[in-house]
Specification:
Layout: E1 5-10, E2 13-21, E3 25-34, E4 38-43, E5 47-48, E6 58-62, E7 65-69, E8 73-79, E9 96-101, E10 113-122, E11 125-137
Antiparallel strand pairs: 1-2, 2-3, 3-11, 4-10, 5-10, 6-7, 7-8, 8-11, 9-10
Length: 138
């Protein structure tokens, strides 16, 4: 297993992340310690939604996952939820799939993209979130 990576994306918040790759994608385990209630998005990879020609872009947001795909690639991001534990119990808000529409020309390869993500409500204290990212080049 790779060693965890520690970072502080915002004052008062620290995140220890372990990424475990496999043939279809990877699993991210984030141990988050926060001094504030906040929202975090765990995102997948940008997928082209087409520009000068139709590329068969499709998106689906369903419960705790989001999928973006076109005729040459796809990316799905899902929250991994333990059925025996109340998800994000203190925040009373479970994770939810979300699709981010990116401003044009912010991606180096494609002028128009969307990014599948999972939106988490983070509460004060320490919690662990687990996200699965599956990507495919077709």
């Amino acid at each position: 297993m790779p060693p965890p990576v520690d970072r502080s994306p915002y004052p008062g918040i620290t995140v220890e992340t372990t990424i475990t790759p496999d043939a279809e994608g990877h699993t991210r385990v984030h141990k988050i310690t926060s001094e504030i209630d906040c929202v975090a998005y765990d995102c997948g990879f940008a997928v082209s939604r087409g520009d000068f020609r139709e590329i068969g872009f499709a998106e689906k947001v369903d419960g705790v996952s989001a999928l973006a795909s076109n005729e040459f690639c796809s990316c799905m991001v899902s929250a991994i939820v333990d059925e025996n534990v109340q998800v994000n119990e203190l925040a009373d808000k479970p994770p939810v799939g979300h699709m981010i529409t990116v401003d044009p020309n912010t991606n180096l390869l494609y002028t128009k993209t969307k990014i599948p993500a999972v939106k988490y409500h983070i509460h004060k204290g320490t919690q662990e979130i687990v996200t699965r990212v599956d990507a495919e080049v077709i």
